[in-house]
Amino acid sequence: MRQKSNHIVIVTSEFPPQPGGIGNHAYNLALHLYKTGCSVKVIADQRSEKGEEEIIFDESLPFSINRIKRYNWRFLMYLKRILITFISFKKASTVIATGKFSLWNVAFCSLFFNNRTIAVVHGSEVNFKPFVLRKAINIALKKMNKIVAVSNYTKSLIQVNREVIVIPNGIDLLKWNIEISSDKSLKGNPVLTTVGRVSSRKGQLNVIKLLPDLLSQFPEIHYHCVGIPTEAENFNKVAEDLGVLKHITFHGSVDADILKQILKKTDIFIMLSAESRTGDVEGFGIAILEANTFGVPAIGTKGCGIEDAIDNYKSGILIDNNALKLKEAVGDILENKDDYQKSSISWAQKHSWNKIINMYLTLIQY
């Protein structure tokens, strides 16, 4: 029986069908809260030009969603988002804010209500370089009843004197355990893959710069990059200068079936993430768990949220960003492939949303 007393409003800066880690998290949080018997409403922006993609996607959702129409004058979107959030507070038992503007929005509306409020912090929201933005986020977080960080690294970035609860990102195992054909062939032996927007933060450039050293030990290695090719042109030039261009393939954005086929043919998932100039950081690295479901171990950098996404020397290896450590990690995984495959699958299963959602329910029902 659906518990109407738990009426949850999730205010998010991202939401599918457009890509983004915050949106992926918000979608799964909404879906699995709904499955536990909560009444759920999502407030999110229209991010496509005409909104047609969102209309089709939203019709498939079992919970309600209020999309903020896209305007040329962006401040109109902000005003409308605040107004709809304010109205939604009246019927909500708990309001969850996820994403930068959502934190400010919910904190402001909470001044007029006594609803339970929960902030979900992913990383970049609490790592702004300008002092004014950092101060504004801290003020917003102090207004929240509970603060959740998606990793211990993200928790370390939060600068408010409040309890912060770490709840890791989850994965929908039903979505990723579906049997698919794996006829797709990929260049390389071994095959390295990164999934995510091609950008400085996701770390593709770091891998490219280390490829010359990797090729000295693994001459048939090939690096596959899957995701929106934001900085692919610049990275291609670097690869050409280094003489490794023929060992790299940029696939661009692909559909879910193609992505699964690529992951099934991957030997090692790699994510050498780095902080961007603006303070954008990797808060967790959900793509690592998605690869793990296929038994693909991962190599990731220390000093970011990836540390929580990898069970070191079990589901993968955490390294400092240098050629020697990367060569050692690739060699160790290839030599012990069966053990890493089994541990990767087990690690992904521990992060099932069916388990993660219970941690959120504990906060909602306190």
Overview of the structural elements:
The strands form two sheets. Strands 3-2-1-4-5-6-7 form a seven-stranded parallel sheet, with helices on both faces. A six-stranded parallel sheet has the order 10-9-8-11-12-13, with helices on both faces. It has two domains: 181 residues, Rossmann fold, CATH 3.40.50.2000; 176 residues, Glycogen Phosphorylase B (Rossmann fold). The chain is globular. The model has no long low-confidence stretch (mean pLDDT 93). 42% of the residues lie in helices and 19% in strands. β5, α5 and β6 form a beta-alpha-beta unit. The longest helix has 16 residues.
List the helices and strands and how they pair.
Layout: E1 3-12, H1 21-35, E2 38-45, H2 52-58, E3 64-68, H3 74-89, E4 94-98, H4 100-109, E5 116-121, H5 131-142, E6 146-149, H6 152-157, E7 164-166, H7 173-176, E8 191-195, H8 204-217, E9 222-226, H9 232-242, E10 248-252, H10 256-264, E11 268-271, H11 286-292, E12 298-301, H12 306-309, E13 316-319, H13 323-335, H14 337-350, H15 353-364
Parallel strand pairs: 1-2, 1-4, 2-3, 4-5, 5-6, 6-7, 8-9, 8-11, 9-10, 11-12, 12-13
Helix pairs in contact: 1-15, 3-4, 4-5, 8-9, 8-13, 11-14
